[in-house]
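My current task is to audit a protein record that another person submitted. Thanks in advance; the entry in question is below:
***
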Amino acid sequence: MLKQIALLLFIGCTISTSAQETINTDPVGGVYITGQFVGAANQTIYLGNQNMGGVRQPFYSVKADSTGQFKLSYQIPFADYYFLKFENGQILHMILHGNDTLKIYGDVRNVLDISNFIYSEESEAMNQFVSEHAKFKRFQDSLSYVVRVDPLKADEVNAYFQPIAEGFYAKRNKFINTYSNSGAVVVTLNAIDQEKEWTLYTTVVDLLGKSYGSSPTVQNIINQTEARKKELEARKFLEPGNLAKEIALPNTEGDTMRLSDLKGKVVLIDFWASWCRPCRGENPNVVKMYKKYKDDGFTVFSVSMDNSAEKWKAAIEQDGLVWPNHVSDLKGWQCAAGIDYLVKSIPFTVLIDKEGKIIGTNIRGEALQTHLKAIFGH
């Protein structure tokens, strides 16, 4: 799916700089951080904050001595999540409230796994969870690669992965319970699937608001979560069981074609475009499903988000999209049907039953095969 993504270890996927509020810059108190890092002899150690330049522009620095020892004193402008950045690019995260005194010892070759915080248990726990989550994601990605190379191993890989995933999520939930009164739970947000675990996600955001609500980072997370809640409310019409909205657009010949004309068939409404690589990559699977189930009463209603009629028609031909239901007003992202269905990224699909009621959204790949097999029995 075509989306934009940001990254800064534990807060990157939850914070968008464009959504940040005006920050209070009145100092909340001094912080005094001392420590020693193996491998940091005579190196510069940087102090930074996501809301004050981010990881690329730390706002303060100190020089470690020949043994890797350092002393850092600074008046922070607000309680928030800060980080120490080392010359090799590694980052260690901290929760600072103002008037903090911390001692940190570690190894710059692997600061997440080899570091010890004195006087800040929550910061140490936070970094440990970031490390565990990163290892879990690497393992998950490696198994996903195995399946991409050999799809026939999917069942075997899933059976192997499931208990490992359950173990990690049990640790995640224990972490949330243990640090429910601390800003440290922010690190669990990237380990929560918002689509499948929205209630848990909002629970953690509520905890952050109560425990660390003065943090600009937390305030941004709360604002984005509220915006997401409004979006979900607006998308309720897409919930299973609701009647799909009518779509009436010109087909490739310029004649108006309506979604309601297909009543009596199971229909996959497929929002796509000739320029969308993920869409084009999914097309062979859709073609396969169409050919397998078209005689059972399955069809596809393709809604193009193209601007060019030539490119739209050429893509239909090139990808062998042999069903007759192709429509577009050639207005790109301003496509009337796209606006009606709140399409923000593509491919986006809506599977509807013979009565025109929604079965589900974003059903693609193996999920589409599974749904159609359940519907038609083969």
